[in-house]
Every structure is written in C-alpha cells, then in structure tokens.
Amino acid sequence: MRIGTLYAVEADIRGCSAEERQRVRFSRSKPLVDALKPWFESQLAAVSAKSTIAEAIRYVLTRWDGLTRFLDDGRVEIDSNAVERAIRPIALGRKNHLFAGSDGGGEHWAILASLIATCKMNAVDPQAGLLLCPASN
User: Fold this and answer.
1) What are 104-128's pLDDT values in tens digits?
2) What is the signed CA dihedral for 48, 54, 58, 61, rounded to 10 degrees?
3) 68 vs 126: which has the higher pLDDT
4) Contacts of 65 (CB under 8 A, 6+ apart)
5) Res 5 pLDDT > 80
6) Residue (of 124, 127, 119) closest to 90 by Cα position
C-alpha cells in the first residue's frame, strides 16, 4: 500500500514538465517517503536478522539516497523499469545471437544486432550510419 501510493502519485504526474513533477513529488511523495524510512527501520527490528526480508530491508536502507533521488529531480523516474524494458531485447539478442552461424560468426552478428538496436533506441537510422563505412574488398 505504501509503495502503491507513491506509484499513484507518479501516474497522476505522468506527462507533466520536470518542474511540475518535482513540485508535486515534494508536496505529495516526500511525506510518504519520509514516513517510509522509519517504518522500514521498525520492521527490520521486528524480524529475524538472518531472514530474507531483513536482508531486503537492509538493501533498501543502505541505498536510501538512490531510492529517494526521484524526489529532488523531476526528470528522474521513480524506478528503472522503462530503461530495463528498453535494453532487454538488446541484452537477450546479443546473448542469443552468439549462437548464430558458426566459427565465431555469431559474435559478429551479436555486435551488429547491438549496434542496430542502439541506433533505434536513439532515433538514429542504422542504415545511414552503416553506409558511412567504406565497403571492404
């Protein structure tokens, strides 16, 4: 529920300017985040120190500055899910394409596939870039 409320604020400000997002986050999300840290600390004290949940809470608390970075900068997303979704095809393709061809040909295909996907992510025409390379004889 606590995290869900933060994501509800993000849904409300999606598409707004960075300045507006920062303003709304400061007024609506910051009090929630400020209350979240002591809650995590109290939960940590209530569970076994060797438990998986204690490990997860310690992970969050040791990375608190990074977790709360989105409050100070309206350009920063609350999580990295969009980036992870964007690079997943590149990472999976590179790994899978290593098996394409034979005698090391897969490595060349993996490099080419990564280059093309990176171009597409950055709105660069991969064909225009590849045409700049002189043809080898």
Assistant:
1) 556 677 677 777 778 887 888 877 7
2) -110
3) 68
4) none
5) yes
6) 119
Q: Which two tokens stand for residue 28?
A: 């609506």
- Reported as type and span, the H/E element at residue 42 is helix 30-46
How is residue 27 annotated by DSSP?
I
Is residue 133 within a helix (H) or strand (E), and if so which, with residue range?
A: none
User: Residue 137 in 3-state DSSP?
Assistant: coil
Return the exposure string of 8-41: e unless at least 16 CB atoms fall within 10 Å of the residue's CB, then b. ebbeebeeeeeeebbebbeebbeeebeebeeebe
Place of tokens 């606590």: 2
Q: Which residue has the tokens 């609350």?
A: 78
